[in-house]
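Write out the 3D structure for:
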Amino acid sequence: MLTLPHTIISILLLFLSTWAYAGQREDVGYTKLQDRLGNSTPTGYGITVSAYEPAWDAIGAKGGDNPKGWIPAIAEENNHVITIEMNQGVPLINKSGNTSSHAAAVSRYMFGKEHGVSQQLDAVKYHELEDFIGYLLYPRTFYQATYSIYSDTVFESSVNNFSAIGNYGQNNNDFLYRFDWATAREDTVNLVSSGNNENTLSDPIFSSSLNSIYVGLTSSQHSRFTNTYHYGIQNRPDVVTPNENTSRGTGTITGITAVLMETADNSQLSELGVTQANTPIRNAKRSETMRAILMAGADRTTTNSRENAYPRDKDGTWISDPDGKFRRYIADIEDYKESSDFETGNGLDTRYGAGQANVETSYDILMSTEQASLEDNGEQSVSLLGFDYDESFGLGTKNQQANDTATYVLPTIEQDADIAITLAWNADIASKNGIFNAVVVYDLDLWLYQIIDNEETLIASSSSNTANTENIWASLEAGGDYFFRVDSTKNLVAILWDYAIAWRVTSQELLDNSAPNNQLKGFNVATTSVPLPSTIVLLLSSVFFLFLKKIIRLN
């Protein structure tokens, strides 16, 4: 059995405050969704979430000699959801009786009665973080990769919350390989926290996971880069939330994801497939699909209703007034990619990623159903919102039906509009007899074209050589004919891989919220087909391996 190094705890946050936070659900779009759908609003019903927590002081306790726990207390705010304390992959028969103030803060924003989006989760299973690594992640990935008949899963749930991050020194690469391999194999949706200091790199376990969703803050007071382990420094986050710290923000995104996963469990929204572990899964529930839908649905401009941030010093600590009080303020996104200094190679903003998560918009993308590309015999025109999952892309030799480009034609736009597109795919982790020693991020590109005088004109692109999402946010002209394309021809060797893509076209005028289905005001479309451009051959992506020393932080 793997022996983990002693954990050194570094407190970055204060979790015991109990101020009123009116507007949490409003700021992430859930109130609008409730106003539209009423009793039909998804609440996370039937979804089980797992949360992976460090051992932490019991609520109300102070000092390092007090008993540690990793579950929240059964308080009035969260007693409507079953919580299960896990140990070595199974529920504890006798509860330890020790609770965690960190777990309490995370759960408050995941499913708490006052703040949480997912009010009717089936259950939340709380694992101690090092127990997860030592008893689930490490041995089970070994047996899975070594023995094809071994079927025990690494992840206990399809949605997993990692609000704690850390550093395990020389073991970091191995842990990250196993984590991302299991994520892709089981197609779980993992939400990971960044650090709370914009001036430092985020710790690698598990914020440097390439196949997870990296959560930051609308205030941009978070680590904007992953650590140098696993593949090299990455510009992150993927999405942000209006919270004071990233632990709570990751709880917020976990609740949103549970609501979307409940919605995705619908046979009319997407096709049924299988994971790499040969378990059935709807394409809408895949890890890549959920990441694309969350990012494409994020708000690039916000008007939040409540105080959601604190002024911070360069070391990440909150700045207090002369009287010793912390002063909160409302953080908003008002200058998304206003300067090229803030633009990443894959089309995001270094401070905000794809923007602030919006459950209503992501829900609308999801409800617009899976829509195949032209190359996969899709319709001549996709809708203004939608998503697709392609299980075999890139002309690999094992599947002659695969394609190395995928084209999605939009209806003719009758009104000035904006478009947001996110393409997402998992890193490919190699293992031989249970030894994980290589990671490759295939190089996919995303292009947006307008047809002018029967000629295709490139108006936007995203073509990072290292990231595993590509993103476009652009304006569309009234009367214009547009299409976007996924391209794999940068890879100098044939690949056979999968990806997900999500998109939304929104009017530059306000939405007509009085409409029963929130359709765009006066937005008329007509179907048209357009000629397609040729592809471009560029470069092959590279792999990096580096090492750092150990420290664990709570975020």
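The chain has nine helices and 27 strands.
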